[in-house]
Specification:
Elements lengths: L1 H22 L1 H11 L1 H4 L7 H8 L9 E5 L7 H7 L5 E6 L2 H10 L5 E5 L5 H7 L5 E6 L10 H12 E11 L3 H6 L5 E7 L6 E7 L4
Parallel strand pairs: 1-2, 1-4, 2-3, 4-5
Antiparallel strand pairs: 5-7, 6-7
The structure holds S-adenosylmethionine.
Length: 210
Amino acid sequence: MANQEISQGSGRTRFKRKLQQSLGGWGVFLQGFVEHPVMVGSIIPSSRFTIRKMLAPVDWDHCRLFVEYGPGVGTFCRPVLDHLRKDGTLIVIDTNKLFIDYLNRQIVDRRFIAVHGSAEDVEEIIRAHGHSHADYILSGLPFSTLPAGVGHRIAAATYRGIRQGGAFLTYQFSKAAQNFTEQYFDRVESGLEWRNVPPCHLAWSWKGEA
Ligand SMILES: C[S@@+](CC[C@H](N)C(=O)[O-])C[C@H]1O[C@@H](n2cnc3c(N)ncnc32)[C@H](O)[C@@H]1O
């Protein structure tokens, strides 16, 4: 019986590994969604149009620390690293270890740090890596399905974790993220990207005056 369980278990593991190998990042994202649908919140990664529009207002010359919540399989990581200064740092934080392990295998860049943890702990994570504040924080978190209280804790910790003049960039299929950031940030601009499945609400929530 024990042997049968072991062989069934390893068969499942082999199947998952084969699926990941044949589908690449998409297979890992699909597996993450199947295992944690509420936390992942979407079955399709963001489009390149969403990425371009979301990152457009970032002042890359003055960005030393960029933080991303919920990178998934890293749809935004490569574009962020392409723009980031040579001495900059990108910290990504995800509660799903499957995604963090995948990113650590895929992205070899000394500016890149992948943390298995929650966005609620962003201030400790920033300090643990030698910074006082982030210049920008990006979020793909499913704010509408986060457990009660978590959205408020993340929005408040994010405001404290960003420098004056920095911004919290959020994208989601609903306006849920923006509804949270409007309660904490000083100025919020918003937009819609239709070339995404489904169309995506974007918000740029600024700390400090324009
Ligand atoms: C919709 S997916 C984002 C996908 C990806 N960023 C993209 O653009 O395609 C949401 C991600 O948020 C992560 N997540 C959910 N709650 C979290 C939390 N409290 N802290 C950090 N990551 C979280 C999930 O594991 C998942 O990777």
